[in-house]
Amino acid sequence: MKRLRTASTKSLIVLGVAVLVVAISGTAIAVAAKSDGPVPPAKPLTQALHDALAAPEPAGVTARISFTNNLFPSGALGINGSPLMTSGSGRLWLTNDGHGRLELQSDAGDAQVVWGDGHISVYDASSNTVYKATFAPKTTTQDTQTPPTVEEIQSFLDKLGQDATISDAQPTNVAGQPAYRVTVSPKHDGGLLGQAELAWDAAQGVPLHVAIYAQGSSTPALALTATEISYGPVAASDVNVAPPASAKVVDLSGATGSGGGSNEASAVTGLAAVQAAASFPVSAPDTLVGLPRQDVRLVGPSDDRKAIVVYGHGLGAIVVVESAAQSDKSSGVAPLPSVAIDGATGHELATQLGTAVLWQRGGVDYVLAGSVPPAAAEAAARQIG
Questions:
Q1: Residue 34 backbone class (left: φ over 0; alpha: ψ -120 to 50; beta: rest)
Q2: Integer angstrom CA distances of residue 311 from 254, 281, 315, 337, 371
Q3: What angle do CA 210, 213, 219 make, to 5 degrees?
Q4: What Rg value do the Cα atoms of the chain yield, rounded?
Q5: Helices 45-54 and 150-160: crossing angle, nearest 10°?
Q6: Can you give the pLDDT at residue 38?
């Protein structure tokens, strides 16, 4: 599958945002603010987590939500109306077998995200376009495992605490439900990430709050807010909704890594081996903006190999992807602002949590991404090639 070559940056980012929202809503409903109502008794974090993991799984979840996306600058990618790329309110349905639907409304039109059985579709009414992708199907097995003990949870938190600062369990109320809230912030190598927040229903164990903040920001970069929530069976008709027959269909299955086929080649590791095996010149300096090179590998099917070079550690790492130049590359990045990369014209997507730079030079397509500000990303790009 070679759709990654021709899929536009706009399409990939719309799908990426939808996948992120599904990842959040599949296990949690992000909530921006405390709701009035009763709060649970104070508990140690380990006990609050144990009780949540031991709670019986609800038959389903139905909620009214409000989604906020402050990640992308206004007008990025030429998208101004889609609630997935800006903000919107709507509803959420989740079944206990992995199916779900998120419906967002905005003045410019609605967005529908439907997922289950290894498939996801994103319908954007503002452009009358549906984006589809197929993932490796999730194997469903009967979960008979017992929840981790308090001691096991404490051991996990001790390890996490080596790299992150973790708050106590804070009693609160979310969407009318007594809940516990915790914040986690990186101690080092966190890039532009300031902190993440999580809250969960004290009785049901269902996560009710996920929010991601950039450094120095008091408002979340991404938040999915439940204003009402109820638990109980969800009808199949609530999660199986087809887009209009007139909608333009963009299939991004190849961009998600499915359909590798028989021409999938083994990964090659190490700079010398990658440079010898690649059909294009691979540039991998020892350092980028002070970050040491950590890994070099050649991956992908034999007719579309890509070199991946990693600099630094943790969330503050920079990743560079290099591949043979494609003549149609510019069509997908045209909406992005231009930036000069030592004689080449690149395109840049700057967000609160990181920056990506795309450019082409010497027969090679480059994509550099990291949780770094634009100036650092641009400086790193100029050291390559």
A1: beta
A2: 27, 19, 11, 25, 12
A3: 95
A4: 22
A5: 120
A6: 92
Amino acid 49 reads L
366: which 2 tokens? 């480059």
| CA dist., res. 90 & res. 226, Å (int) | 9
Q: What is the mean pLDDT of each run of 10 residues along the chain (385 residues)?
A: 40 46 48 67 96 93 86 61 76 91 82 90 87 72 74 96 96 93 92 92 88 92 86 94 90 57 71 95 96 95 91 94 78 72 90 94 94 96 89
- Each residue of 304-340: b (16+ CB within 10 Å) or e? bbbbbbbbbeebbbbebbbbbebeebeebbeebeebe
State the residue for tokens 């480059």. Answer: 366
**Structure tokens, 73:** 């600058």
Contact 186, 163 (CB under 8 A): yes
Question: Which residues make beta-bridge pairs with 301?
Answer: 264
Continuous H helices in the chain:
3-6, 9-27, 45-54, 150-160, 236-239, 271-277, 374-381
Report the pLDDT value the prediction gives residue 278, as an integer from 0 to 100.
Answer: 95
DSSP 290-314: TEEEEEEEEESBTTS-EEEEEESSG
Report the 10 Å Cβ neighbour count for 273: 13
As a whole number of angstroms, the distance between CA 302 and CA 263 comes to 6
H helical segments located in 41-145: 45-54
Burial class (CB in 10 A: 0-12, 13-18, 19+), 8: middle
CA contacts within 13 A on the Cβ side of 375: 0
User: Please, what sign has the CA dihedral across residues 247, 251, 255, 257?
Assistant: positive
The span from the CA of 213 to the CA of 234, in Å, is 32
> Which phi and psi angles does 10 have, rounded to 5°?
-60, -45
Total number of residues shown for the chain: 385
Give the DSSP letter of residue 142.
-
Residues 6+ apart with CB under 8 A from 32: 66, 68, 211, 220, 223, 225
Show the tokens assigned to 33: 């603010």
List of domains in the chain: 3-254 (2.50.20.10), 261-381 (3.30.200)
Strand partners, 360: 365
The 10 Å CB-count burial string (b at 16+, else e) for 141-175 is: eeeeeeebeeeebbeeeeeeeeebeeeebbbbbbb
